[in-house]
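User: structure tokens for this one?
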Amino acid sequence: MQKKFTSILVATDFLMASLAWASFFFFRKTVIEDAPFSVNTEFILGVILIPSFWITLHALLGTYINPLRLYRMKILSLTALSTLVGTVVIFFAFLLDDEIDGHHLYYKSISAVFLLQFFYTLVPRFIIVNNLVKKVHAGKIGFNTLLIGGSQKAVDIHDEIKFNHQNSGNKFIGFVNLNGIDKNLEDRLPYLGHFNDFDKIIADLDIEEVIIALDSTEHEKLRKIIAKVSGRDLKIKVIPDMYDILSGSVKMNNIFGAPLIELNSEILPVWQRVLKRGIDVICASIALILLTPVYITLAILVKTSSEGPIFFKQDRIGKNGIPFKIIKFRTMYIDAEKAGPQLSSSHDPRITKIGRIMRKMRLDEFPQFWNVVKGDMSLVGPRPERQYFIDKILVVEPQFTQLNKVRPGITSWGQVKYGYAENVHEMIQRMKYDLLYLKNMSLALDFKIMLYTILIVFKAKGK
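Assistant:
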């Protein structure tokens, strides 16, 4: 449904942008330039290339992300913002050098671009989104929702949302509890199990949204639940009286009579996320090409220094808890973990001589540029861990799952400040830096971390 609706929205935006530019081209020729209108190469290129620019701009501003959750005021504000930004770009790129009789014609040109693009885009968008909102209110479109809690408070939240005269889009699949179960809730919703079964329930039932219905006095339970849930691609909502015990940025939403607090899971603005991904792919691709001599040299050194493969692949947990194969140059002797998963230490006998040098200079991480190109990783982000050690960390610090909100990185703030961890305690200490990174995440901070990483490589001061 999401893909279908996105395709309709993109196709409509492209068509309307073509019509808007064609209308402007006619206006520009006949009014601004006082010349006859004709369909020429400039016109044809314009109605193809200019709409492509608008589609790119709309995507950067997040219009096509989760479009089923669009509403009328949001599409109005998105259309106004993208039109304003796009009009300025088009004016300076294509219209500023026009030969005109007086600056007042510039104002006519820029006004025409803005008004034509805005209204041509907004009208069909508004019709589409208005139809979508009506389907949500009628219960024809919904989002699979899991209710966490089994008390009277959960019953109240369910009833307030479910029996409101306008459907909020929450399609309740069932509930999970932590302790006791209110019989009134069991009469309303299927009981799916205890919160310990959360992972399986989320995977099996394609849950999109979670509503946490706990009393504000249950601080510790709430902290653990949010920690477990927040590392996933889910919308998380809690009842308002929990606001004072939550940290981080939150966004208030009134769900048609049932006021809830939505935890803000978007760490970076959409345009920064797109730009970050673009920088990742471009820089990683360039690195793979330019570092080819380094790869060949390291491959020879690894192969001749000890028996075993050149590369080492291992399962790690990535964004939203999805596992992937991380690639490294092998720095240990084969069968290094025949006794089970182990972390390396400063004087680990399992590390080869060349491996010890490579680890100090972070050279063993270089093959991960391929992981970046594939989309498993980013240049900068929390270091990915194995599920075995994640399970151990979660016993002590449930907040660790928050690191799964973003792609893991080749380097991280924790890696720069702390280096390789030798035990679970050190992993938790390093985690604090990565959590700080999440709270302060920006492209500027990414560049700073990359610069520090480059210094570590050249100084060979990696732990």
